[in-house]
Amino acid sequence: MPTAFHNALIQLHKAANIIHLDNSTLAVLEAPKRILTVTIPVRMDNGQIRTFTGYRSQYNNARGPFKGGIRYHWNVTEDEVKALSFWMTMKCATVGIPLGGGKGGIIVNPKELSKRELELLSRGYIQAISHYIGPDQDIPAPDVYTTPEIMGWMLDEYEKTVGHHAPGVITGKPLALGGSAGRGFSTAQGGVYCLQQALKRLGKQAHETTVAIQGFGNAGAHMAHILHDLGFRIVAVSDSKGGVRTHAERLDIPALERHKEVSGSVVGFPDVEVITNESLLELPVDVLIPAALENQITKDNAAHIKAHIIGELANGPTTPEADEILFAHRHLVIPDILMNAGGVTVSYFEQVQNAMGYYWTEAEVLQKLEQIMVDAFTAVWETKDKHSIDMRTAAFVLAVDRVATAMKQRGMV
């Protein structure tokens, strides 16, 4: 299967051809500005030293400092963080916030570490990259299996290194350390605003819309909770251990959340059909929300997708080959660089609040977030109609043009 970065470059070239991007600018956009590879030694609870490999890809900073999360996962690769940093560059440009793109990761299964070991690993990673990050240089944030608590440790370690307070170096922090109200569920909330805009244009109401969500982690669970409260009919969800489907009107999401909190998985929830992650993707629903990892919808299963709307809450869940099939079958794909941009948008708000030393209420944050997401969705939709292209390509057309303009105005190309 093609790598994530290979897929990213296909998306870049597709948009570049539409806007007739010059070869010099394209060549610069085809590679990250810098990739850091670090080794992090940690003294484990058994007294032995274990080393972990970490990465930080800083892709493009023409529009502002590098920005992007840090993930802890056993399958982290250099290729993956390169792709994710590219998508972050495009994501920030799509929603029009003044940031570039970066991404980091450590090869680790955090579930196997004690809290002490996890803290030492997190602090060691920041020590290793501290000269390359900062509020005006590169701003990390949470991602897969990282939390506000971990961001708090990282902030503390960075401030010890530089010798002064610098709350804007990390976003997704606890509120007590300068985090933003609404950040915890902002990725999902931004996706909800996009989905509402799509349904508005298609003339559908929440109560008549069935939804399946692949991934009941941070983003997916928040998405399910918000959509449930809005009256959507969520009929299937899954996590890493499997999925559940109801044949009733809809799942009881609050009860399912309580079940997962106790059991660790949605599997085992009573009075439902047990399904796989793969079969969830092919259910006959109105809306499919991939909220797990990359490359879930491929050329092998795209023709079996029945959902009319696919809202990508995960990063890179659909391969370029699958995109072609979905577009040919008239599915509406709301791409990740738009659909899940609520998280980085509120991270940007967090930076602004840190710089001002003045903090907004949750209502103010959500009002500002909704305006940005609606404006971005509208711009992508209009670009789609203008060029008769799919929404992903439309989002990349907008983003690549904005990044290229900044590069040229800086004299970078």
Order of strands in the sheet with most strands: 9-8-7-6-10-11-12
Identify low-pLDDT runs: none
Radius of gyration: 20 Å
Largest sheet properties: 7 strands, mixed
* Residue share in β-strands: 15-25%
State the end-to-end CA separation: 33 Å
Number of helices: 14
Overall outline: globular
Query: Taking all residues together, what is the mean pLDDT?
Result: 96
The structure class reads alpha/beta
* Order of secondary-structure elements: HHEEEHEHEHHEHEEHEHEEHEHHHH
Please provide the count of β strands. Answer: 12
Provide the helix percentage: 40-55%
Helix and strand topology:
Layout: H1 4-19, H2 23-29, E1 34-43, E2 49-60, E3 66-73, H3 78-95, E4 101-107, H4 115-129, E5 138-142, H5 148-162, H6 186-202, E6 210-214, H7 218-229, E7 233-239, E8 242-245, H8 253-263, E9 273-275, H9 277-280, E10 287-290, E11 309-311, H10 320-328, E12 332-334, H11 336-339, H12 342-356, H13 362-387, H14 391-410
Parallel strand pairs: 3-4, 3-5, 6-7, 6-10, 10-11, 11-12
Antiparallel strand pairs: 1-2, 2-4, 7-8, 8-9
Helix pairs in contact: 1-3, 1-14, 3-14, 4-5, 6-7, 6-12, 6-13, 12-13, 13-14
Describe the structure.
There is one protein chain. The chain has 413 residues and is of the alpha/beta class. It is 46% helix and 17% strand. The chain contains 14 helices and twelve strands. Strands 9-8-7-6-10-11-12 form a seven-stranded mixed beta sheet, sandwiched between helices. A five-stranded mixed beta sheet has the order 1-2-4-3-5. A hairpin with a 2-residue loop joins strand 7 and strand 8 (242-245). It is globular. The model has no long low-confidence stretch (mean pLDDT 96).
